Amino acid sequence: MIAKSQYKLEARDLEIILALVRTANLARAGEQLNVDASTIFRAIRRIERGLGHQLFERSRAGYLPSEQAQVLAEHAEQVETQLEQARSAIQLTPEQVSGTVRIATTDTLLHGLLTPALHKLANIHPLLEYELHTGNELTSLTRREADIAVRATNTPPLHLVGKHIGPIRMALYGSNRIEYDQQVEAAVDWIVPDDGLPEHPSVIWRKRHHPKAVLRYRVNSILTVMELVAAGMGVGVLPVFLTQQRRDLIALTDTLDECQTELWLLTHPESKHLLRVSTVFRHLSKTLNL
């Protein structure tokens, strides 16, 4: 693959390379840029021929970037950030803050904490829009898959900008319609996170202190644990903040120190300078309340 002449990279070329590095998939890269997969494919081939280098290797995992592609993607991110900062600079009043902010969190934190905070923010900045990604996997802020992450962790990444919100306390809960024996382990069924959450604090605590518990229901969401417990189907470990407004739940233990984690609000150092991101970050840092 030999370039016939010195190829001049255009801003659009960098944008395409960055999209494919982020997604490793032609179709998803096309969705980000509002074009079809074949357009991305032809553009990458054209850029590779012009540069005289293969930028991506196709594998079962998708399009894997070469070292040169990763370097170009880093430059593309800098261009992207500068453009967003320029757009932010012309937004002279708070009412003009606009754009899309991508927030990554879990369904538990979204419904238990974030929803009320975002509802208040919608009234203050009506031009802001949000992409809310929930899941237990760690969405990469470094690769700019999200602008802000709200995560429970005791070890936040050092390369990210973080705001410590506070401790997430947990306790064992049951339904208030049932009278529980002191020997909870032997008397009732348990509702627990499934194998998708093997390192969840409640899983580690339960294995250590209640190894003989009858695990009747395994679920992939802490919200589901809560609803099944409230229905009287068993007991489960839940975050205290999630249960404070629930009259159908009763705490069967004091808060469990071994289950406590810390809530962090995180963003990438370059993203914190973007008006749309900094506006949401500041609001969440003030309003998230455990």
Structure description:
With 290 residues, the protein is α/β, with parallel strands linked by helices. It is built from ten helices and twelve strands. A five-stranded mixed beta sheet has the order 4-3-5-12-6, covered by helices on one side. The chain starts with 10 loop residues before the first helix and ends with a helix.
Spans where pLDDT lies below 50 across 5 or more residues = none
Cα shape: elongated
N-to-C CA distance: 57 Å
Structural class: alpha/beta
**Overall mean confidence score, pLDDT:** 87
Proportion of β residues? 15-25%
Number of helices: 10
Radius of gyration: 24 Å
Following the backbone from N to C, one meets helices and strands in this order, namely HHHEEHEHEEEEHEHEHEHEEH
Tally of strands: 12
Summarize the biggest pleated sheet: 5 strands, mixed
Q: How are the strands of the biggest sheet laid out side by side?
A: 4-3-5-12-6
Provide the helix percentage: 40-55%
Main features:
290 residues; alpha/beta; three-stranded antiparallel β-sheet; 10 helices
Short account of what is shown:
By secondary structure, the chain is an alpha/beta fold. It is 40% helix and 23% strand.
Give the topology.
Layout: H1 11-23, H2 26-33, H3 37-51, E1 56-59, E2 62-65, H4 67-89, E3 99-105, H5 107-124, E4 128-134, E5 148-152, E6 161-168, E7 170-175, H6 184-187, E8 189-193, H7 201-209, E9 214-219, H8 222-230, E10 236-239, H9 240-243, E11 249-251, E12 261-267, H10 275-287
Parallel strand pairs: 3-4, 3-5, 8-9
Antiparallel strand pairs: 1-2, 5-12, 6-12, 7-10, 7-11
Helix pairs in contact: 1-2, 1-3, 1-4, 2-3, 5-10
